[in-house]
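Action item from last week, closing it out:
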Amino acid sequence: MGLAAPMATASEFDRQQQKETTQAVEALQASDQAPDVVEEGLDERLSQLPPDRTLEDVVKAMYPGDEAAQQAVLNKLTGMSTAGFWDQTWKYTKCAAYVSLLFVPGAKAYRAIKALGGVAETARLLIGAGNAADFLEIAGGVGSQIIGAGGIAKNCF
């Protein structure tokens, strides 16, 4: 009998934690602002992902330990096909996620991303360029390794 009370408390704690996470996700989804990508250590976290990484893996690396941000970003990236809700922060988040999918150590795109200053800087350059021709001019020879990768033009320009 004495064990039932702690079990109920743990179960109540789990439900409360799930409720709080759900509320945080809903608040992020309702917001026009994307959560800030944790840029410090991002390249290192990405380099530890397997070569067959998924978008979910990448988003977890972008928002380590923040389940609410991870879920909100995944829902925005996978659940909405219209571009109307993207402000610059969401556009950066989306672009950084797709650049991160290319971040496989040893690959040509990896070397190009590192040469441009890492994932965060590459995403900023892509968005700032506005189109593939301008990005190629800014990035020089390494730009073609990135532009040619699937999903970059669609998700960054």
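Closing note: The chain is about 65% helix and 0% strand.
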